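Please, structure for the following, as tokens.
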Amino acid sequence: MEFSDILNMGASLIQNSSDDSTTEIDGDTISSALNNLIGDGNGGIDLSSLVSNFSSNGLGDVVTSWLDSGENSPISADQISDLFSSDKISEFASSLGVSEESAKSAIADTLPHLIDNATKGEESIVSQMLDSVGGMDGAMNMLGKIFR
């Protein structure tokens, strides 16, 4: 799935949420705000930073559930504050014209679906990342060099 499709899916999820403050926001505005929040600046998702932030904040099991093929574990709006800087959350909220609480709820509701969809299937971001280092063997070789 292309990153733009993932952003559009996220926009749709936010527009269709139970939070009245997000239902009338333009999809392109939401997609742009999501791109600024989780994008890598090169038209993709900054998966390595996200996974690192989750792991360092004791939420490794949560993000692993999103990367695996099973059911996604939820994340709370409060936990979003542990993953993203207050500046990032404030910027996201400002871009959407909503409160920071609404922004954190929107991120918490949407992020599991975005990561899950970005990392499944043959054309997933994970597959693309593995291909760029020579597949699983290349990734294991790279990790072996790091931990020597």
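The two ends are 35 Å apart (CA to CA). The mean pLDDT is 85.
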